[in-house]
């Protein structure tokens, strides 16, 4: 037996990180790489939010915070849930974590043991199965399809549930597909959940504000208030307010579970940076037009990217209704050979050849559990996007 714990064998490096690393290596060699690989807003954090952090630090908010979040931020989160999601979480039902990611980590550490299953719609954000597996749980995938705009259907969910299912993970708007779930979709999911009272739901709504085509986000717990005691509503400031580096996420859910998650967090981190929490409170209480301006830019970029992708022979692309990702299908390119002589057997071959030959970084769909697809993030400048699309089209034209 080696020194490292067995659980480390299950913790592989996500392909998203590996692809970013490849791009960095090329850049270090002086190549001009265009990256559509990152799941991160390119905007700066709003100045008013930064000023709130500055003020908090000067005012002495520099001591250990309460483990589950400062009263001021928890109050702002309660207002946010009430105002934007029609959810009435009390402060005892809310906790703040180091990004939404630590919410997931806390929740699964508190509940998942060997033998437990967690239903994850596929394609998925890689962290869900990685964290489940870390605690010895088994991910069970429910497939979503391009033809359904990558929505989870009641039938796919029903088929994935067993007596060992502990959780269903929902993520809408979705990373990596940009698909989302509307009221009717959520009602269908709730109908299945009512037949399986042992299943809890982690509803990851961190992209809620990034929605297009006039769609309005509805929370699962608001659609099915009778299931509220089985739902964790996850959110955070990373995506909506361009605050990925501040590391503030939060969750609303049943008190007993929140208490268990708080106990874990107390041992792990003693709570979240007090200054970042002050900034997050200012963001949540700030004017809504901050988000609207960023959203308008994403919407414009989405049009540009998707309409270009759809003109490229061999590519298909469902219209992503939310988040900042497009998820084009590249089945028409498989088996062909690139201008640079790379045979494209898989979507990973495609992504690597595209990076080598055209210096465009994307992530292959099989990294998210479903290929042959690519995930393109359009959270980047219009000029970069335009040029990247041109190079992608050139790459596909060069296939033989
Ligand atoms: N959920 C989804 C679907 C994400 O894509 C991300 C970030 O990439 C997160 C949660 C977590 O974000 P953070 O930890 O920055 O709050």
Automatic annotation (TrEMBL):
InterPro entries: Aminotransferase_I/II_large, AspAT/PAT-like, NHTrfase_class1_PyrdxlP-BS, PyrdxlP-dep_Trfase, PyrdxlP-dep_Trfase_major, PyrdxlP-dep_Trfase_small. It holds the Pfam family Aminotran_1_2. Its cofactor is pyridoxal 5'-phosphate. It is an enzyme of class 2 (transferase). The keyword Ribosomal protein does not apply. The keyword Transferase applies. It comes from the Bacteria. GO terms for molecular function: L-aspartate:2-oxoglutarate aminotransferase activity; pyridoxal phosphate binding. Its EC number is 2.6.1.-. It catalyses: L-aspartate + 2-oxoglutarate = oxaloacetate + L-glutamate. This is Aminotransferase. Keywords: Aminotransferase, Pyridoxal phosphate, Transferase. GO terms for biological process: amino acid metabolic process. Residues 32-392 form the Aminotransferase class I/classII large domain. Belongs to the class-I pyridoxal-phosphate-dependent aminotransferase family. Homodimer.
């Amino acid at each position: 037996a080696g020194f490292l714990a067995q659980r480390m064998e299950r913790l592989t490096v996500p392909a998203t990180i590996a692809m970013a690393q490849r791009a960095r290596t090329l850049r270090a060699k002086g190549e001009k790489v265009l990256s559509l690989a990152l799941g991160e807003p390119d905007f700066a954090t709003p100045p008013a939010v930064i000023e709130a952090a500055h003020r908090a630090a000067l005012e002495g908010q520099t001591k250990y915070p309460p483990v589950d979040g400062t009263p001021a931020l928890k109050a702002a989160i309660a207002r946010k849930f009430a105002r934007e999601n029609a959810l009435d979480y009390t402060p005892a039902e809310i906790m703040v974590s180091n990004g939404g990611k630590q919410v997931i980590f806390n929740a699964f550490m508190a509940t998942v043991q060997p033998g437990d299953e967690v239903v994850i719609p596929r394609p998925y954000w890689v962290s869900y199965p990685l964290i489940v597996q870390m605690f010895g749980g088994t991910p069970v995938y429910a497939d979503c399809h391009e033809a359904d705009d990558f929505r989870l259907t009641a039938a796919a969910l029903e088929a994935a549930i067993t007596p060992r299912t502990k959780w269903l993970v929902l993520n809408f708007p979705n990373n990596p597909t940009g698909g989302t779930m509307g009221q009717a979709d959520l009602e269908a999911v709730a109908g299945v959940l009512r037949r399986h009272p042992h299943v809890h739901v982690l509803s990851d709504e961190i992209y809620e504000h990034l929605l297009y085509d006039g769609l309005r986000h509805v929370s699962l717990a608001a659609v099915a208030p009778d299931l509220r005691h089985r739902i964790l509503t996850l959110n955070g400031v990373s995506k909506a307010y361009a605050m990925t580096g501040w590391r503030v996420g939060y969750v609303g859910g049943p008190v007993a579970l929140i208490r268990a998650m708080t106990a874990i967090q107390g041992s792990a981190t003693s709570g979240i940076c007090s200054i970042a929490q002050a900034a997050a409170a200012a963001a949540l209480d700030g004017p809504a037009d901050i988000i609207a301006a960023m959203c308008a830019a994403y919407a414009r970029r989405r049009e540009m990217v998707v309409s270009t992708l759809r003109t490229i022979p061999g590519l298909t692309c469902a219209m992503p209704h939310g988040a900042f990702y497009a998820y084009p299908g590249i089945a028409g390119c498989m088996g062909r050979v690139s201008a640079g002589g790379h045979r494209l057997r898989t979507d990973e071959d495609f992504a690597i050849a595209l990076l080598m030959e055209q210096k465009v970084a994307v992530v292959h769909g099989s990294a998210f559990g479903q290929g042959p697809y690519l995930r393109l993030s359009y959270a980047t400048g219009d000029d970069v996007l335009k040029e990247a699309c041109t190079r992608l089209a050139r790459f596909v034209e060069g296939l033989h």
